[in-house]
Specification:
Bound molecules: coenzyme A
CATH architecture: 3-Layer(aba) Sandwich
Number of strands: 6
Number of domains: 1
Order of helices and strands: EHEHHEEEHEH
Mean pLDDT: 87
CATH superfamily: Gcn5-related N-acetyltransferase (GNAT)
Strand order of the largest sheet: 1-2-3-4-5-6
Oligomer: single chain
CATH topology: Aminopeptidase
Number of helices: 5
Strand content: 25-35%
Length: 168
Amino acid sequence: MGFWKSLFSTDAVATASRVQSGASSAIATEPRVAFSTERDLDLYELEELCDAVGWSRRPLRKVRKALQHSFLVVSMWEERGAKRRLVGFARATSDCAFNATIWDVVIHPSYQSRGYGKALMKYIIKKLRSEDISNITLFADPHVVDFYRRLGFILDPEGIKGMFWYPD
Ligand SMILES: CC(C)(COP(=O)(O)OP(=O)(O)OC[C@H]1O[C@@H](n2cnc3c(N)ncnc32)[C@H](O)[C@@H]1OP(=O)(O)O)[C@@H](O)C(=O)NCCC(=O)NCCS
């Protein structure tokens, strides 16, 4: 199936989802977890995922536009027989040369603490590196700073501070 771009490669995820390789292991009811870079997602399914972690709702037309204009959109799916469920998501914007910023990293609560978030981040970083992008940034909520730190992200490198402008 062309939709599925690649299977997980980390041991933790492979164990958790019992991902198997080889033609003889294709048992239809075994859950499999896969990544996709398809950006034409079901926005209601994405909204459901974001709702599940308590994020505020955003207008779907703007979400659609954001996905269309992102450099990279990565979704993570659990496939069980003919059924599939969106279990993770992240996207990146980029100048396509030097810089990329990762946004909207989320794993469904029922699938957290199994190594999925780490696998998702590693996948997106690998994809960005394969495009020769070397400066990868993100904005971390305070409670996830250590999650990103474990993945090699540095807080305020050389004292550089993220700055924001908001309308009054
Ligand atoms: C943050 C999030 C993506 C992590 O996903 P996850 O699948 O639970 O994380 P993993 O199981 O892959 O954890 C990987 C490692 O990070 C650690 N970790 C996970 N969440 C953490 C947190 N909030 N703070 C510190 N460490 C964390 C794990 O203990 C694990 O450590 P290990 O490699 O030493 O075993 C997930 O909790 C989530 O979607 N949260 C809600 C949305 C959110 O806050 N997104 C971030 C917005 S900036």
